[in-house]
Structure formats: structure tokens, C-alpha cells
Amino acid sequence: MTAPQTQRRSAFVSTGAVTSAAQERARAGRRETAGPRRADLLTAAAACFEELGYAATTVELIAARAQTSRPTFYAYLRSKDEAFLAVTEQVCDRLEATQQLDRIESLPPPTVLRATTRAFAEAVFATGSLVALIDSRAGIDPAVGEVWSALRHRMNRRYAHYLSGPAAGSIDPCAPPERLVVMLGDAIIRGAARLGRAPEEVREQFVDDQIRMTERCLGVAADARPRRHGADPDAQGT
Fold it and tell me: Where would I find the HTH tetR-type domain in this sequence (predicted)?
């Protein structure tokens, strides 16, 4: 190769590297924004993962679901794995929000326990099979596992702190709160994740049963429990 050819090739390689880096910076900027196009892609990804599972979902299917192209997908997301991680983060945000109640300090602990149990179960229902898929992928994908484990740790710690603090005088737990919160959380995640498409009355029965189990495990006084619609007043607490 002659010297001019070498110089031209070097210039081409250098320019190509610069262009590639510039493109990657542009992609990174788009990935970090919460614009409507990225939001549409993540909505489409969540729907595909929920309906088809992880293995059957492809970048092409996500792009088609979002009514866009494969190159557009890659302009906002590096891969299917990154899309799944972003969907996982969204689901985790929704689940964590169920612990946030207005005026929680002024509410009786039984009311807080019932409200947060119902909100958490309904949030799992709303995400369909995604929660079960995330729970499964957490053991395979380290990035998903880190996000999922961090969420569970935060929620369990906050729940146990509440049971050991503000609620302590109103409950008589059957086991240390740190262990109970893990058990109760697992029961909702595993149970509600299977009932995302179940009839409303089935989901409602699950929530009711979960609340009753939570009350029994935490030793909520029978007279503090809500009366079931149409229930015999004399049967309360039995």
C-alpha cells in the first residue's frame, strides 16, 4: 500500500471512529430521555414480554408493536436485554409506590396494613405475568436480579420498620417482623402473578384472603378487622 493510500485509509478509520462515537453519544442521550418514542417502545416491550415471554420476544416484534422500525429501536435501546431491564425498573417503581399512603402516620395500623396489602396485590394484577417473569429472570440476568433484589430489600425493610415501630402497639406478630414481611411479600407476588387474567371475583377473593392471612400472622385484633359485606356480625374474628 502506498503512502497516500495509507494516509487515506488512516483518515477514513479515524473519521469512522469519530462518527461511531458521536452516534453512540446521540443514542445514549436518547436512551436517557423519557421522550414519547422511548416510552412507546417500552410500552410495546412490556406487552410483548407479558404476552410472549422473554425468549419469544424479539427486537423486531417490539418495534412492530410500537409501529416503528428496528433502527429506531436501536436509536433508543441497545438490546432486548436493556428493554427488559427498563421495563423491570418501571414495574418496580409501581410496586414500590404501593407503600406510599397519604397521612400514613395518622392512620390506624390495621388500616395501613389492609390498604398496602390490597394496593400491592392490585399492582401485581395490573402487571399481568410480568412480575412472575421478572422474578424468574432475576435468577438469570444479574442486572435484573440487582434491581429486583434491591426493590424487595427496600420494601421488606420499610415494612418491617413500620411493624416494629408505629404498628408495634397494635399487633402481636407470630414471628419476627423481618421474617414475616418476606413471607407475606412472597405470597402476594407468587399468588397474584398467577391471577392477572383471572375474573375480578377471583382476584378479589385472593386479596381478601391475603388481608385475612396478614391480619392473623401479625396478630391484628379481631375488633380492628373490617366487616365483610353481608357477613354475620357474630362471626367476626372466628
Answer: 35-95
Supply the range of the domain harboring residue 68. 27-78
- 128 neighbors 50 (Cβ within 8 angstroms): yes
Q: Does residue 176 share a domain with residue 123? A: yes
Let me know whether 70 and 109 are in one domain: no
Picking from 82, 91, 25, 92, the residue whose alpha carbon sits closest to that of residue 59 is 82
Whether residue 158 sits in one domain with residue 43: no
**The three three-digit cell numbers of residue 34, written as one number:** 423519557
Residue 103 — very low, low, confident or very high, per pLDDT cuts 50/70/90?
A: confident
Number of domains making up the chain: 2
For the chain, the distance separating the N- and C-terminal CA atoms, rounded to the nearest angstrom, is 92
Same domain membership, residue 152 and residue 46: no
Average pLDDT over residues 14-29: 46
**CA of residue 65 relative to chain centroid, distance:** 21
Looking at the chain, the number of H-run helices and the number of E-run strands are: 10, 0
User: What pLDDT score was predicted for residue 44?
Assistant: 98
Is residue 194 pLDDT above 70, yes or no? yes
Cell of 224: 380492628
CATH code assigned at 99: 1.10.357.10
Alpha-carbon span 185 to 153, nearest angstrom: 11
Average pLDDT for 177-181: 93
DSSP assignment of 155-189, as one string?
HHHHHHHHHHTTTGGG---SS-HHHHHHHHHHHHH
Dist. CA 95–CA 134, nearest whole Å: 12
